């Protein structure tokens, strides 16, 4: 069992704990005509990385059918978006120099 590291996130109408540090697999349907669409597969060291990739890097049309597997739990594209928008999502911060001051940007 994965120990939760973050507070609960509302997914599909119920409260669940989500471990953004757990490894994740992302499946995205390939654009192809036909009854059976093939899936593109990518593995990520953390679920946070998979979520960021799905939301920020994939075209919107392709993310509609995307789904993520974390442990034995499956998350659809709507779940992925909600996890990204959650206050628990680990935002990366960057420090940049402006003149003599350091400024921290939060993504």
Q: Can you tell me about this structure?
A:
The structure is a single chain. With 107 residues, the protein is an alpha+beta fold. It has one domain (8-106). Helices cover 22% and strands 37% of the residues. The chain is built from three helices and eight strands. Strands 4-3-5-6 form a four-stranded antiparallel beta sheet. A two-stranded antiparallel sheet has the order 1-2. Helix 1 (47-57) crosses helix 3. It is globular, with a radius of gyration of 16 Å. The relative contact order is 0.18. Residues 1-7, 94-98 and 102-107 have low confidence and may be disordered.
Which short descriptors sum up this protein?
single chain; 107 residues; alpha+beta; four-stranded antiparallel beta sheet; two-stranded antiparallel sheet; 3 helices; disordered C terminus
């Amino acid at each position: 069992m994965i120990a939760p590291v973050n507070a609960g996130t509302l997914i599909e109408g119920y409260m669940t704990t989500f471990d953004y540090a757990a490894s994740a697999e992302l499946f995205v349907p390939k654009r192809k005509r036909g009854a059976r669409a093939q899936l593109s597969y990518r593995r990520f060291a953390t679920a946070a990385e998979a979520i960021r990739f799905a939301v920020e890097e994939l075209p919107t049309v392709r993310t509609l059918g995307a789904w993520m597997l974390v442990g034995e739990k499956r998350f659809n594209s709507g779940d992925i978006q909600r996890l990204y928008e959650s206050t628990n999502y680990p935002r990366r911060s960057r420090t940049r120099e402006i003149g003599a001051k350091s400024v921290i940007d939060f993504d």
